Structures are given as structure tokens and as C-alpha cells.
Amino acid sequence: MSRTALYSGTFDPLTNGHLDILRQGVALFDKVVVAIGVHPGKAPWLTFEERAETIRTVAALERFGEKVAVASFDGLVVEAAKEQGACAILRGLRDGSDFDYEMQMAGMNGTLAPGIRTVFLPASPGLRHISGTLVRQIAALGGDVSAFAPAASVEALKRAITRREKTKA
């Protein structure tokens, strides 16, 4: 029996922290579906297509093969997990505040879908400080984010910044 996990987020952009959790998930499960949240009320820097392509590119470079798939979702994570046939939802933990929030979410998700487990994976020590928000802020101010995100993400961010600057002009 194949075990599939769902790893959800906005991945705007995919960071080295996300990649760390994805690597751990691939080691534990037969397949990990990276589910990109697409919400009409949010305005991500990267389009869904850019985020999906970045994840596929990085997955290929990591040689994950068929173990990683990409999907979109716009509703409840547990519903996305059911649609993908997942038995687990992967969640990365950087610190205690992540733990408190994620425990609440795990409780709610467990009530909504008792057959789907939440699996908490600790971020590697050297990556706990990384967040997509900080990566975007540094990139927007012209900083080098290559230490915080895979090269495909860095390039996608550069294109997004150029787009944003053109719309401001």
C-alpha cells in the first residue's frame, strides 16, 4: 500500500526551509503532494505556475522522481488531502510559536478528517530562521537571498520583482 502525504503552503517562494521539510517527507512517505494554496483574496508575488514550476525544477534537481507531485487547492487542507488520497499532512516546525499554532490546526483537522494524521517535522537547525516573508522582503530591498532559497526560487523572485516594478511605473 502506497503512503501519500500532503505538504501544503503558499510556497511564495519555495525556501530552503520548505525544501528541508520536503526532503524529510520524501524520506518518510512513498509520495509527497506539494499542495499550493491558491486564494482569490491573496496576492502572491509568484503566480501559481511559477511556484509549481519552481517546485518541479527543484524536485528534479533533488532527484525525487515520482515521489513528488504538485497540486493546487483553494479550500480546506484536509479536503485537499482527501482528494489526493493522503494519509498524512506534513507540517514543518521552526519554533515554539509554530508548534502552538500547528497543534491547534492539527486538532481541528483531526476532528474534520480523523483518518488523516498530522506529522510534525522539525526544521533543521541552520534553517529555522527562514520564512517566505523575510525572503521576499530581502529580495525586494535588493538583497541576496541565495542562502535562503533554491536557485529556481531566486530567479522566479527576480522576475516577480521586475513585474512589480513595471506595474508601479
Chain-averaged pLDDT: 95
How is the biggest beta sheet arranged?
5 strands, parallel
Shape estimate = globular
Strand content: 15-25%
Q: How many strands appear in the DSSP assignment? A: 5
Query: Which class best fits the helix and strand makeup?
Result: alpha/beta
What helical percentage do the residues reach?
40-55%
SSE series = EHEHEHEHEHH
Q: Helix tally? A: 6
Uncertain parts: none
What is the spatial order of strands in the main beta sheet? 3-2-1-4-5
Description of the molecule:
The chain is built from six helices and five strands. Helix 4 links the parallel strand 4 (88-93) and strand 5. The protein is α/β, with parallel strands linked by helices. The radius of gyration is 16 Å and the shape is globular.
List keywords for this structure.
alpha/beta; 5-stranded parallel beta sheet; 46% helix; 18% strand
How would you sum up this structure in a few lines?
The protein has 169 residues and is of the alpha/beta class. The protein contains six helices and five strands. Strands 3-2-1-4-5 form a five-stranded parallel β-sheet, sandwiched between helices.
How would you summarize the topology of this molecule?
Elements: E1 4-9, H1 16-28, E2 31-37, H2 48-61, E3 68-73, H3 77-83, E4 88-93, H4 96-112, E5 117-122, H5 132-140, H6 151-168
Parallel strand pairs: 1-2, 1-4, 2-3, 4-5
